[in-house]
Amino acid sequence: MGFHPHGVQGRAFVDGSITQDINDINNIYQVVGSDKLVVLKRREASSAADMCDLCILTGHESTLAG
């Protein structure tokens, strides 16, 4: 996974092809946790307020089990 201010991009190990692509110019994303769960902080790009959402990224393997 590669992270940038407006989203995230996933690529296949085998051939480097793009498997996931999130590019949202209306929001700014920041990685705030990445132990067993990847957690992103999301806030509006046009807002000066400190309000934000937290997003948990999960993949094809269960990261919530055990």
UniProtKB/TrEMBL annotation:
This is Uncharacterized protein.
